[in-house]
User: Fold this.
Amino acid sequence: MRTPIIAGNWKMNKTAVTAVAFIEEIRAGLDAIEGVEIVVCPPALAIPAVAEAVKGTKIGVGAQNMYFEESGAYTGELAPNMLTPFCQYVILGHSERRAYFGETDEGVNKKIKAALAHGLTPMVCVGESLAQNEAGETHSFVSGQVRAAFAGLTAEQAIACVIAYEPIWAIGTGKTATVEQAGSIIGGTVRATLTDIYGNDVAQQIRIQYGGSVTEKNIAELMAHPDIDGALVGGASLKPTFVELAANAK
Ligand code: PGA
Assistant:
């Protein structure tokens, strides 16, 4: 009942020119895939050109970040209404933003509310560090991140969100969490926390992605887990084999 969603987070890679060349290379392949929602998240300056290049296809476009205010003296930031002409999605609270740019749980919560108010689908990232994992703190930390992100959100708003569980130690390292590890946190922590807040009916409708070294080779195994509804993909979304990855997500 939950449509799988595969999103490519291009991070700080590709210019407007190289982004369009790449999307032209993978567009037909992605558009031919049935039963999977597919999103690409280019760097901000490439978003308008990529949005134009995917017009008429089923490929969605997302931003990698957004500020929660509508306008004003916030040097370097982008407001929701600057994204909405081009984007349907926005990644919020990615661990790189939390680690390098000081994003807080409170800020992520405000951004989620602002995105929803503008009709954007937030892809909300949560995940523990290696140290937290090794200290046995994964459950309490990730559960706390989910509670903070969804604070004050109605059930209807929660259902409009996608969550990405990305263990930080698995991002860009080639170290994927095992299906058992990923599935048990996604089911036993993320969805369990949502069930605690909103009840089972609502929690069952919210899509939860796994992220961290997902490739065309391991996606099928991850998707076979009943609680994993897709993936947020970094490195492997920059290559033409992203088409194969998305096709293998069914
Ligand atoms: P990766 O990145 O697939 O390169 O590990 C995932 C992410 O950061 O979303």
About this structure: Strands lie at 5-9, 37-41, 60-63, 89-92, 121-126, 162-165, 207-211, 230-233. DSSP finds twelve helices and eight strands in the chain.
